[in-house]
Give the backbone structure.
Amino acid sequence: MNNTKISIWHNPRCSKSRNALKLLEDKNIEIDVVRYLESTPTEQEIKDVLKLLNISPRELMRTKEEVYKELGLKEVEDETKLIQAMVENPRLIERPIVIKDNKAAIGRPIEKIIALLDEDLK
């Protein structure tokens, strides 16, 4: 593969995230692994990923997480507040996210990551 820089927002406790990382490793791709629960993305990094994914902040959120319910985020319409909630509670961020060049994919299902990786090959 060329000099493409690929990163993954990874949670080692998540099976989908582990599967995505293994997929990348099996393809011998150089990866920057970001353990986003330990190294929380900034507000700007989340905004950048939202732009790459072309989705709203709520679409990036794990709405079944207990903290989502505790914070009453279902009623929040302000996208800045939703992003801030993800900065303060990174477990709200959907995972895994693979970023390649100026594109990104959430690995649910993992086929989305495969499609992202295969774009260069077409």
